[in-house]
């Protein structure tokens, strides 16, 4: 089961049981431990996931953080848990702040089992930021959340890449917040900026007030039109289940990237040595992009797992068994040509 499917399963479980998980320990056992596990860490291996992790901080002795995820024997991610009914505030992160400066960890998570707030040291090295760079809410998981979480998995963990991405995510969050504020009620500066671009006369107070109203209406119309366009596209799309009968998703949840298209073209070029390239078809899904022979979900050539932040895999097949091959660049797909050619030969032999 891939990360997206396991996260969906955990989100469902969270919604079903959160109201009865009133204590911190209950939230840890029922929600947080499964979350750590789905990231690929063994919660029953005390050298990998250390419960009640202790590190003396100045004059404070014996203080504990709920979990420390260790990589190569060193704490890399600190996790502090609260009851599922708690509203998470920065006041709940006091222990994380103290531990952050005296351990090797550069990542910290504050959670109540439903909401996970991810912190790093973007603003000042070795000092935990006051604001999270990423927040995961299991009540409303987005596809972009899954891509972000890929970087925190055991298989894809790269601390330098995560910290770089943390800076971008934090800035993106701030930009989004500002845009949402402007959408709700345009500020005077924004209203004047737009007015100067489209209005030839003097921007008086009355003109500014008019543009404040027009901007709010325009934002609403843009959002409404985008939603309608996507719904129309989803209703008109012809879709077929993939190899694992993955359910068809709305257009806004399946986004075909340029990398996926370019990867498909490389696979198509390799396959053209043995079959008509027109027989090689791309079909995108939520967690991967499948490349099929004859547009048949039972004749999968490869799967392109390109949704991760720091890692990309090409899944090759022998029978029904998928092997994920890590690639650093799209040109690495050419190195898999022998596996792809063997797969084509296998499928063509079965068809005879």
Structure summary:
The chain is an alpha+beta fold and 352 residues long. The chain contains 9 helices and 11 strands.
Detailed description of the structure:
About 40% of the residues lie in helices and about 20% in strands. It is of the alpha+beta class and about 350 residues long. Strands 1-2-3-4-5-6 form a six-stranded mixed sheet. The chain has a five-stranded antiparallel sheet with strand order 7-8-9-10-11. Helix 1 (about 5-15) packs antiparallel against helix 2 and helix 6 crosses helix 7 (about 205-235). The protein starts with a helix and ends with a helix. The model is unreliable at about 235-250 (pLDDT under 50).
**What is the makeup of the main sheet?**
6 strands, mixed
Q: Would you report the number of β strands?
A: 11
The run of helices and strands is HHEEEHEEEHHHHHEEEEEH
Query: Which strands sit side by side, in order, in the main sheet?
Result: 1-2-3-4-5-6
- The Rg value, from CA coordinates, equals 24 Å
The fold-level CATH name of the largest domain is tt1808, chain A
**What is the CATH first-level class name of the largest domain?**
Alpha Beta
Report the principal-axis shape: globular
**Overall pLDDT:** 81
- CATH architecture field of the largest domain: Alpha-Beta Complex
Distance between the termini: 32 Å
Report low-confidence residues grouped into runs of 5 or more: 237-252
| Helical content band | 40-55%
Query: Number of helix segments?
Result: 9
Content of β-strand:
15-25%
Structural class: alpha+beta
């Amino acid at each position: 089961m891939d990360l997206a499917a396991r996260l969906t399963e955990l989100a469902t479980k969270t919604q079903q049981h959160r109201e009865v998980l009133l204590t911190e320990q209950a939230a840890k056992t029922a929600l947080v431990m499964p979350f750590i596990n789905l990231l690929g860490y063994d919660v029953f291996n005390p050298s990998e996931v250390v419960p009640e992790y202790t590190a003396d901080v100045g004059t404070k002795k014996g203080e504990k953080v709920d979990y420390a995820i260790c990589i190569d024997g060193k704490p890399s991610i600190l996790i502090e848990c609260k009851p599922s009914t708690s509203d998470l505030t920065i006041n709940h992160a006091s222990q994380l702040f103290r531990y952050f400066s005296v351990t090797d960890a550069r990542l910290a998570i504050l959670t109540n089992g439903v909401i996970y707030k991810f912190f790093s040291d973007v603003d000042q090295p070795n000092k935990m930021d006051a604001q999270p760079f990423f927040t995961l809410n299991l009540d409303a998981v987005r596809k972009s959340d899954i891509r972000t979480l890929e970087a925190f998995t055991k298989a894809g963990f790269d601390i330098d890449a995560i910290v770089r991405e943390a800076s971008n995510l934090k800035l993106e969050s701030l930009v989004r917040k500002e845009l949402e504020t402007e959408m709700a009620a345009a500020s005077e500066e924004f209203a004047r900026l737009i007015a100067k671009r489209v209005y030839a006369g003097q921007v008086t107070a009355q003109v500014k007030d008019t543009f404040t109203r027009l901007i709010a209406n325009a934002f609403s119309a843009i959002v409404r039109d985008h939603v309608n366009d996507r719904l129309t596209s989803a209703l008109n799309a012809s879709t077929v289940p993939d190899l694992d009968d993955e359910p068809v998703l709305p257009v806004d949840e399946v986004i075909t990237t340029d990398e996926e298209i370019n990867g498909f073209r490389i696979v198509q070029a390799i396959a053209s040595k043995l079959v008509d390239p027109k027989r090689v078809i791309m079909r995108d899904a939520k967690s991967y992009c499948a490349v099929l022979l004859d547009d048949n979900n039972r004749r999968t050539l490869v799967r392109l797992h390109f949704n991760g932040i720091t890692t990309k895999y090409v899944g090759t097949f022998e029978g029904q068994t998928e092997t994920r091959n890590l690639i650093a660049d799209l040109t690495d797909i050419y190195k898999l040509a022998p596996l792809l050619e063997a797969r084509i030969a296998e499928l063509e032999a079965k068809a005879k």
